[in-house]
Write a structure and sequence with these properties.
Helices cover 45% and strands 19% of the residues. A hairpin with a 4-residue loop joins strand 7 and strand 8. The chain folds into 2 domains: 122 residues, Response regulator (Rossmann fold, 3-Layer(aba) Sandwich), CATH 3.40.50; 94 residues, Arc Repressor Mutant, subunit A (Orthogonal Bundle), CATH 1.10.10.10. With 240 residues, it is α/β, with parallel strands linked by helices. 25% of the residues are buried.
């Protein structure tokens, strides 16, 4: 686990001790010695840091104000607040303005390292869950190679957009991709895509499938297969 930490600490001996233990873990740190410098460093490149250790008692601008300003820039960067104060009200105040953890000085460096690792793991797990939820919401259909959003009428094959699909071509693909490898007869596709009241010929399906294939194959998506004597199916499991 490689981390880049913004250490906000005005006590040089504490900063030196923490830096030594961070180095043993293979972590990198930038040090800010007062609240103004801390906010300026974070504001300059917020994405640079995986975590902040923040002393509560700082010159120029205290840790509470720093945490507020950091949270205004990034609602998610993990913050561990370090302080010599041990009262419950101080802890509630620190956590209330956005700190994720609260460690009272003097503290064991090994215990701090364990807190940092646990907090980082928790944040990573939450991000993974959020990413999965966002992905599931973005695309109603996801197969090994294809993603389809019905709301946006968007089709991606290996993250390449399939463009210029007509409404019926999109509906054909969406219908078949919902049930990969299931064979649909032409009559079934007429009913599902055109509706029960459609009285056209089966060759209508063939013509639309032909055009759909041409547009898919422009991005290498040979995923519509003909099952002779029966109909068509969607299958991208064999795509390389």
């Amino acid at each position: 686990m490689s981390l880049r930490i913004l250490m906000v600490e005005d006590d040089s001996s504490v900063a030196e001790m923490m830096g030594m233990f961070f180095k043993k873990e293979g972590w990198q740190q930038d040090i800010a010695v007062d609240g103004v410098e801390a906010v300026d460093m974070f504001k300059e490149n917020a994405d640079k840091y995986d975590l902040i250790t923040l002393d509560l008692n700082l010159p120029k601008k205290d840790g509470i104000q720093v945490a507020k300003e950091v949270r205004a820039i990034s609602p998610t960067v993990p913050i561990i607040m370090l302080t010599a104060r041990g009262s419950e009200s101080d802890q509630v105040l620190g956590l209330g303005i956005g700190a994720d953890e609260y460690v009272t000085k003097p503290f064991s460096p090994i215990a701090l390292i364990a807190r940092i690792k646990a907090l980082h793991r928790r944040v990573m797990m939450e991000e993974d869950v959020q990413t999965q939820e966002n992905t599931n919401q973005e695309y109603e259909i996801q197969t090994p190679h294809l993603k389809i959003s019905k709301d946006r009428r968007e089709v991606l094959f290996d993250d390449q957009p399939v463009v210029d699909l007509t409404p019926k071509e999109f509906d054909l693909l969406y219908t078949m991709a919902q049930k990969p490898k299931q064979v649909f007869s032409r009559d079934q596709l007429l009913e599902l895509v055109w509706g029960y009241e459609y009285y056209g010929e089966e060759r209508t399906v063939d013509a639309h499938i032909k055009k759909l294939r041409q547009k898919l194959e422009k991005v290498g998506a040979k995923v519509i297969q003909t099952v002779w004597g029966v109909g068509y199916k969607f299958d991208d499991s064999q795509v390389k």
